[in-house]
Amino acid sequence: MVDEPRIGVYVCHCGRNIAGVVNVAEVAEYASKLPGVVVARDYMFMCSQGGQQLIQDDIRKYRLNRIVVASCSPNLHEKTFRRAAKGAGLNPYNVHMANIREQVAWVTEDPEEATEKAKALVRGAVERVKHHEPLEEKKVPVKDKVLIVGAGIAGISAALVCANAGKTVYLVEKEPSIGGMMARFDKTFPTLDCASCILTPKMNEVASHPNIKLLTYSEVVDVEGYVGNFKVKIRKKPRYIKEDLCIGCGDCVEACVFKNPRFYPKPDEWSLGLKRRKPIYIPFPQAVPRVAVIDPEACVYLKYGKCAQTCVKACSRNAIDFTQKEEIIDVEVGAIILATGYKTLDLRKLPQYGYGKYPNVYSAPEVEVLLNASGPTGGEVVLRDGRKPESIAIIHCVGSRDEKYKKYCSRICCMAALKLAHLLHERTGAEIYEFYIDMRAFGKGYEEFYRRVAGEGVHLIRGKVSEITDAALTPEEEGKLIVRVEDTLAGAIRRIPVDMVVLMPALEPAVGSRELAKLFGVSVDENSWFMERHPKLAPVASLTDGVFLAGCAQGPKDIPDSVMQAEGAAGQALALIDKGYVELEPNIAYVDEEKCSGCRICVGLCPFGAIEFDEERGKARIVEALCKGCGTCAASCPSAAIQQNLFKDQQVMAEIKGVLAAMRGG
Amino acid sequence: MKYAYYPGCTMKTSYPHVEKSILALAKHLGVNLQEIEDWNCCGAAEVVNISMEASLILPARVLSLASRISDKVLVPCTECLYNLKRTLITLEERPSLREKIVGALEKKGLKWKPVKIYHPIDMVIKDIGVEKIKEMGKERLKGLRVVPYYGCLLTRPWGDDHPLYPTSMDEIFEALGAEIVDYPLKTKCCGAALTASGDERGLSLTYHLLREAKRRKADVIVVPCTLCQFNLEVFQNRIKERWGEDVSIPVLYFTQLLGLALGLGEEELGVDKLLVPFKMPERRGGK
Amino acid sequence: MSIVGFLSEKQRDRRFTEQLLSSPEGSKILECIQCGTCSSTCPLSHYMDLTPRRLIYLAREGFKDLVLRSRTPWICASCFNCVVLCPAGIDISGVMHALRRLALAEGTYPRDEVIPALSKSFYDEVFRHGKVNEAKVALAAKGLRGTLSMMGLGLKLWRKGRMSLSAEKTRSPSEIREMLREVAGS
Ligand code: SF4
Ligand code: SF4
Ligand code: SF4
What we know:
The complex is a heterotrimer.
Chain A: E1 7-12, H1 24-32, E2 37-43, H2 49-62, E3 66-71, H3 74-87, E4 95-99, H4 101-105, H5 111-129, E5 138-141, E6 145-149, H6 153-164, E7 168-172, E8 187-188, E9 193-194, H7 195-208, E10 212-215, E11 218-226, E12 229-236, H8 251-255, E13 266-267, E14 276-277, E15 280-281, E16 293-294, H9 300-304, H10 310-314, E17 327-333, E18 335-338, E19 342-344, E20 361-363, H11 364-371, E21 391-398, H12 413-428, E22 431-436, H13 446-455, E23 459-462, E24 468-469, E25 481-487, E26 492-498, E27 500-505, E28 507-509, H14 513-520, E29 532-534, E30 538-542, E31 547-549, H15 559-579, E32 581-584, E33 589-591, H16 601-605, E34 611-614, E35 619-622, H17 632-636, E36 642-644, H18 649-663
Chain B: E1 2-5, H1 9-13, H2 16-28, E2 32-35, H3 47-50, H4 52-67, E3 72-74, H5 78-93, H6 95-107, E4 116-118, H7 120-128, H8 130-137, E5 145-148, H9 168-175, E6 179-180, H10 192-195, H11 200-215, E7 220-223, H12 226-234, H13 236-243, E8 251-253, H14 254-261
Parallel strand pairs in B: 1-2, 1-3, 3-4, 5-6, 5-7, 7-8
Chain C: H1 14-22, H2 37-41, H3 52-61, H4 64-68, H5 72-75, H6 81-85, H7 92-106, H8 114-129, H9 134-159, H10 173-184
Helix pairs in contact in C: 8-9, 8-10
The structure holds iron/sulfur cluster (3 copies).
């Protein structure tokens, strides 16, 4: 204890959140009698202006030197109360919070029990705060560069904002071209504007922007450091093409030894397997960078070491280079934006819809490609069996809103389905049946779009389809795919034979999201989407400082929402960088040399390499600038020689003792 | 391998031909079946309509008696299978019901000890293995187009296989040389719950199943359920009368076709007692 | 079942909904999202006066009379398609069983369906003998006309040794009887 403690305790009602269960007045009354406590109060909303003012007035009036706020999780308002204390001239680290909302009120039913528990936590906090001492924040300069992972519409939008603000942006994309899912669409809802007309200019802007370093066909492999100072390793896969020489003329592709499209070695990624591709290819006509790429798993030369190499001969610019190796690129950035997007649910997990069994059952993304003027049929709707469909069923909520697959609504499929209905009708004149559970048309212009498509004569049938079958009951059903459904609005069962079925699959996080989350130290929710710091108040920040989220990586979103979040994330990144420095919690660890026995256990354990060993003196030493305050060393030192600010042994022990004393009814 | 064997009521009165095949096959495979002493009715589909508790105590008594013999009970009727599994699961999940049921058992000196519940298909797959069956079978079913029809209760709501698209029988009979017909109705209800009472609504389902099998040029339907065997077989004439369509096709219980594939005789498998006769491929003149 | 006129609040019976909610099978019906998957997959829904989805809906709203007079629970074949596919995890077949029990207890089941009578005589048979000869019970439940129409078939089966009308019994039916009385009270 540094000085005589004069403690103020503030118990928050949090509206009815806490006061609905905990008897806050009783807790305040209890606190006021604890040794060292000068004043204790309860108040409706401690975080409000009035609440903060109350603390500041008390500090001045009663010369308080310690503050305990019993309210919500420190995650939410620790900063608020520290700032308030600082405003009244108190060192902010003399404030401590007892979480009586999440840890008490929300999880305890019985009011009496809850009140007792709250008292115990408050007493623990009071005992602890006595041992707090003034600390200074660490100010660290921020690198003025941004890393953006994923170059779909979200990543592209964020990159352009940051780059236009004059910051260097490293835009990393694992595919050979940027553009993401949107590059596969022909039109976008609700305006039906041409997707490539709005996306291609942005993609080209990215390619030519002096501040954007585009790293396609690349993946982040390692991340170190902390907010403002991240060190990132990026692996760039070899394309076997010199990017600076290739002009994307396609002569090499033309010349490749594979000639018969039926025997091309690989399904084409961009068109989702609707056609096959050669080992050397340009992903799609509007690809950025418009540079060829060679797939080492399919290239005859790279696989067998022998080939006529007609591609090399065809390239007038000598851009082909079979000796290219993967490259590791190190960058240092101040902020990171994750925009890794989504993928659609594997439809083979729902065998009832016959995907993969019946050739004319399609996934929605496949149909997007089919409708695309750059697609395998030039935008013509031709079925896998060569026919033109005369009737088409579009099925919503495939794997969404379903306990057995994804419990959530995937948000984009209702509108995407309406768009597909419109386009398919326009291109084929087919009878279109759309099967939905609820039509979710919440966005700007969406309801109007719904009406427009309904007005075009699409059959909108409210009922979830349970199965697609080819077991015909009547001659009209022969050779068709049959949909049996309850038309819930008519209250009757219908059997509808169709030529084509389009499934609207649930969205799920992109491949490798979990690994990526680990790499960047961000949390994921129960469905593996990256978790935002707060669903309403901090929707673009992750739980890790300096790492922001954009687009579907955080949860299903349509294009307008993705762009919005991306530009928001860019704004947050810029705000961080332009401030120029970050203040780090002074929760670093230090070694008490007297006690250190020189065993070196801590040196190997520190995940941030922040512990040095002074050979001469035989003692460990912690490099302040590197310590992130994780506490690993403090917990592992067998001689108890390491202490960590804000988590000192005496502080923690005092808190425990306080809680126990209260529980014993002291 | 020792099993407690629970035949169920109907096995004795209506399906002695099926039971023959089960016993013959078990013997052939070296499986020791010991019939549960003094077993009772499982409650079928009806008792649960009267009382939930009654529908639990009946299977519970059976399971308790079975546990005296082995930790595995073999159940060839899928309705019984369902009731036994339902009891096991309900008693585990609902402590209040468990207390009541176990209490009543104990009063009669019966101990409650959960046992594993096997259908003959489970027995073949888990205890014998498809590889071994393949070896023993010598592709005797070559040239035979088989519809493995699973019905409702083998895989639903609980089973090891996919509830809608199971493949266990497909695998077994494919290994025996048969050609498996792609049959989208393989787990569709046969309507037995209603046809048994002579209901046309149920009969229409039977009709669709048979019709689809014919449409796909199947030679035989193989089923895991005695009630399905009955239902799909005995109403073929009536369906013809009602819908004017010939749907005649032999319907064999799982162990009957498996027995034949392993070289057992028609008579020991009760195959001679079918209403729609079935002949093995090599003996069907011409083919 | 067509509903004409107002569905009056007086027709709603909260206790009925609560009864269902507290049955082992009906605990989740409030979570139904009315998607119709159950009716879509149900092989018999086109014969039902209320589709399974509508039945669940009316049941949770408490329209006891409409629900307990419906044919639907008696048409349900307990095939469990709906249960496997329901996105809300509702035990629809189970709900059908619960509704059958309630309809039998209230005497509101449709008189021209066979299953209600069959269930009762089946239960009596189990109660008396511990075992059941299903063919016998079925014949009894169907009445004279139904029985006659089955005669030809029965004869064929009998010749193959696949039909017996003998009464089966456990060794001591009274044991079963006492157990049933204890847990089910009848
Ligand atoms: S957006 Fe529509 S189709 Fe997609 S999951 Fe939600 S309700 Fe279903
Ligand atoms: S499938 Fe389930 S959620 Fe859908 S209507 Fe039927 S009971 Fe309700
Ligand atoms: S269990 Fe009953 S309600 Fe459900 S699908 Fe089968 S027949 Fe229909």
